[in-house]
Design goal:
This protein has 150 residues and is mainly alpha-helical. The chain contains six helices and no strands.
């Protein structure tokens, strides 16, 4: 039972950009939670709290999108990278730089991930039979290397 559950988890995890989505969710959480911290921890609260929470929520949603809709991984990866870069300026240095770095790493992993291709056999090399009596260079082959002498 436990082995079967572990195998199903591994198959699910390998069928999608898991690590990219995880880093995006962690980055979004870092960026989203930081404005909700006590004011002593924050550099400057001001109006920056609203974009921080919104960017964090969007990054979490993009990470979950990569998990549950792997076909959208390219768009999710690019948007995650762009939002993480924008958070550097708009959200307390992007969650004290940790959220930005995690977001850029997660976006890159999501964008670069490719689904497993089935193992393919190499195609056989094209075989072009040569006509009887000729060599591959097109010259006539003689049975006697000295040439046909009468």
């Amino acid at each position: 039972m436990l082995l079967s559950l572990w195998q199903r988890w591994r198959r699910w995890r390998r069928g999608r950009p898991f690590w990219g989505g995880l880093f995006a969710v962690l980055a979004g959480t870092e960026i989203c939670v930081l404005p909700l911290a006590p004011l002593k921890v924050m550099l400057q609260q001001g109006i920056a709290g609203i974009p921080s929470v919104l960017m964090g929520v969007v990054m979490i949603v993009l990470g979950l999108t990569a998990w549950f809709s792997p076909a959208q991984r390219g768009l999710a990866g690019v948007l995650t990278t762009l939002i993480a870069t924008a958070a550097l300026v708009m959200s307390n240095l992007g969650g004290f730089l940790i959220g930005t770095l995690l977001g850029i790493l997660g976006g890159g992993l999501m964008f670069a991930w490719q689904p497993n291709a089935t193992a393919r056999r190499p195609l056989p090399e094209p075989h072009s039979p040569t006509p009887t009596g000729t060599t591959p260079t097109g010259t006539t082959a003689h049975p006697d290397p000295q040439g046909a002498q009468p």
